[in-house]
Design goal:
The protein is of the alpha/beta class. Helix content is 49%, strand content 19%. It contains eleven helices and twelve strands. The strands form three sheets. The protein has a five-stranded parallel sheet, sandwiched between helices. A hairpin with a 3-residue loop joins β11 and β12. α2 packs parallel to α3, α6 crosses α9 and α6 packs across α10. The longest helix has 55 residues. The radius of gyration is 29 Å and the shape is elongated.
Length: 364
């Protein structure tokens, strides 16, 4: 969407000339003829920058600048003041009231357009930094919350184990909670690496089916508490693919975690493997409420949570991480869902050619 510039100028010819040149540079323009119109325009149009004439009747540019800087919408809006007053005192007054720049009339149109671009670019960079800061803070809160849950489980069961003559009963939940905490830390490390550097992940030959079964082992205790049964449909044979084992495990852990969290109590989670042509896939189907058709295209967006998911704790990062990691390994993640009947997520990777696989093993 093109950026919008508010022109505050009481001389009609000057305002129209500015509007013409800005529109040639693909900006949208709004013209305010006096100070009161300018303040109303900021509230109604939310412009991306303001060209503000100083010498206007009644409410002058200095007063408009002061009022805008005290308002919510105008607090950080780029303001470039335009004035026939070229002395230092006038320039200092404008800047002290919060203007970002001050241009004396007559001005070079090319220079003014460059200043507009510079201030808009700077504002966009600031917005981006703020957004990334908020996202990192949310990601950290999510990570700390989930690790705290795992540590609570570890602490609780270890205390019970110390009081019992036969502590082995409590070792499995402790091991599961520790493995889940490790998975969360892997999530954070891989996500940080991909978001900062982009690109792909180092690959190796892994058995997709075996990796899925390893991931499923982490959730048996959690599923048991909700009386959810895992139904694993065994594959006809090994399913070697080229992927990053840590990342592939995280993808499957996150999908399985959602399947358990969103399934109805007493339901089932189905895990089945299939191969066709040059793809090996693992599908995970739950018996939850499903996902509506309007929400389905957005479920892999960062921080997106579909309506109705509020009952389950989360920050909307799990499926975003799944999509990011799968893409970095050259794989795909697809979903089919029927509202009221559950969802099926399918993770697919290119199969390793049998001849190439044997050659690699011989070299190793």
């Amino acid at each position: 969407m093109n950026k919008q510039i508010l022109i505050v100028e009481d001389e009609n010819d000057c305002a129209e000339l500015l509007s013409y040149h800005l529109q040639k540079e693909s900006y949208q323009t709004v013209i305010a003829r006096n100070g009161e119109e300018a303040i109303d325009a900021v509230q109604c149009h939310a412009p991306d920058a303001i060209l503000l004439d100083v010498m206007m009747p009644e409410l002058n540019g200095w007063e408009v600048c002061r009022i805008l800087r005290e308002s919510t919408k105008g607090k950080s809006l780029p303001i470039i003041m335009l004035s026939a007053l070229s002395d230092e005192e006038a320039r200092v007054k404008g800047l002290s009231l919060g203007a970002d720049d001050y241009v004396s009339k007559p001005y070079s149109m090319q220079e003014l357009l460059l200043k507009v671009r510079k201030h808009i670019d700077r504002q966009e960079a600031i917005k981006l930094l703020r957004t990334k800061g908020r996202e990192q803070e949310t990601s950290l809160r999510y990570l700390l919350h989930e690790i705290r849950n795992s540590m609570t489980v570890i602490g609780g069961f270890s205390s019970l184990a110390l009081k019992k003559e036969n502590p082995r009963t409590y070792l499995k939940p402790i091991q599961t909670a520790a493995a889940l905490a490790e998975s969360l830390l892997n999530d954070a490390a891989l996500l940080s690496r991909l978001e900062e550097a982009g690109g792909s992940l180092p690959a190796e030959v892994i058995d997709l089916g075996a990796t899925a079964r390893e991931a499923a082992d982490l959730f048996h205790q959690v599923a048991k508490k909700r009386r959810i049964a895992f139904v694993v449909m065994e594959s006809a044979g090994p399913s070697p693919v080229r992927a990053n084992k840590t990342a592939a495990r995280q993808v499957l852990v996150n999908v399985l975690s959602n399947a358990v969290k969103y399934s109805r109590e007493g339901g089932r989670v189905w895990i089945y493997f299939h191969q066709r042509d040059d793809l090996a896939s693992v599908s995970i189907r739950d018996e939850g409420n499903g996902i509506g058709p309007d929400d389905l295209p957005r479920i892999f967006e960062k921080f997106y949570r579909a309506p109705g998911s509020e009952r389950v704790k989360g920050e909307g990062l799990g499926l975003y991480i799944v999509k990011l990691l799968t893409g970095a390994m050259g794989g795909t993640i697809t979903v089919k869902s029927v509202p009221g009947a559950g969802s099926t997520f399918t993770v697919s990777f290119m199969k390793v050619d049998a001849v190439a696989l044997h050659s690699e093993q011989d070299v190793a």
